[in-house]
Amino acid sequence: MPQSDAALVCHELRRTFSTTLAVDGVDLTVPTGSLTALLGPSGCGKTTVLRMIAGLLSPDSGTIRIHDRLVTAPGVALPPERRDVGMVFQDYALFPHLSVARNVGYGLPRRPRGARRARIAEVLDLVGLGDLGHRLPTELSGGQQQRVALARALAPSPAIVLLDEPFSNLDASLRNTVREDVRRILREAETTALFVTHDQEEALSLADQVAVMDAGRVHQIADPQTLYTSPASRFVAEFVGEADVLPGTRAGRYLVDTPVGRLPTTEAVTTGNVAVVVRPEALRVRHDDQGGATVVGIAYFGHDQLVNLRMDDGRLLRARRGPRLDLERGQRVGLDVDGPVVAFPDHGPRSDDLEEAPAGDGAQLELSA
Ligand SMILES: Nc1ncnc2c1ncn2[C@@H]1O[C@H](COP(=O)(O)OP(=O)(O)OP(=O)(O)O)[C@@H](O)[C@H]1O
Ligand SMILES: [Mg+2]
Question: What CATH code is assigned to 242-354?
């Protein structure tokens, strides 16, 4: 069989738990050497996908290949230890009675003792815990425990490392530095990794590619910039980054009329009614007594501020602006939108009543490339 450059290929994975369809036909390819995030809201099926890849759970149907080797298929179910995957669990799952070094050595196949010790020392150095091999897990901080779990997963040099919400147990102040550490360690180990998260900022900032999941399905797989600037569905647009959605009507092949004026679109407009995505950083606010909107609140963050606006028709919009405080609550303003916008076909009954429009096909973008 030809060697592909994918470390992992999942095809049409499906899994039901009694009446819950947890995973509903997932296709996912992870290129060798990449860091891929599986991003989606709680309960959308992320952990179930990861467990099927690890061999801890069987799918009802579908196939999984790891480096071109079929590990899951009808009649094929390789056990976890023969899949060449490393796993980092959300709670780290370290053995409390074993030292750090013995935890790390646990998954290593039988080797001469010297080689084994050398490999343990090597991965402990890689994760920056070279001096702590003798400690027990209870004698470590949360961030250190996580690095032990990572070292244990990396020690046998698996084809792919799977990480389930690897940063969710860390407090906010630690999370950023540990994220950076983990990314650096994975890069230095030149390993392929798939990590699960429900935090879009984490997915965008860490991953080479992000697979966005909802209700058991993958909506889009793309690099962070494509995902943000060309979301494939309204769900992706609203889940990844901040977005307000306005009703619009077609005014030309690449033009829509919206409550904030006539706007160019990134893709050709194929339906009369559309849902238009406006990112807060694309919304410009100018002083204008006749402007049609009012400032109703300002959240100041220092590096920027989020301005909440109410249009005269009652719609709420958000604008992100630099640190200068030149607006105040109650002020009348005008709104403009920078650059082309993403518009999704909206087959709802009334273009101005998006909340009541059915969410089915209307949420899908028909890209006319
Ligand atoms: N062993 C199980 N028995 C029954 N239902 C299950 C089981 N495992 C998962 N589910 C259900 O399958 C769905 C997907 O669960 P899963 O754990 O994969 O979600 P998730 O995306 O990892 O969520 P979270 O972000 O909260 O961890 C959920 O509705 C969940 O309740
Ligand atoms: Mg989960």
Answer: 2.40.50.140
Strand partners, 249: 257, 273
Tens-digit pLDDT profile for residues 15-30: 999 999 999 999 999 9
Query: Between β-strands 255-258 and 283-287, what pairing exists: parallel, antiparallel or unpaired?
Result: unpaired
Give the CA distances from residue 276 to residues 139, 306, 339, 352, in Å, rounded to whole numbers and listed in that order. Answer: 53, 20, 13, 11
CA of 161 to the centre of ligand 1 (A): 21
Q: Where are the domains of the chain?
A: 6-229, 242-354
The lowest-confidence range among 42-46, 62-66, 134-138, 350-354 is: 350-354
Please give the CATH topology (third level) of the domain spanning 6-229.
Rossmann fold (3.40.50)
In the structure, which protein residues have their CB atom closer than 6 angstroms to any atom of ligand 1?
17, 20, 22, 40, 42-48, 198
* Substitution candidate for ligand 1 out of 14, 17, 195 with most atoms within 8 A of CB: 17
Cα 45 to ligand 1 centroid, rounded to whole Å:
6
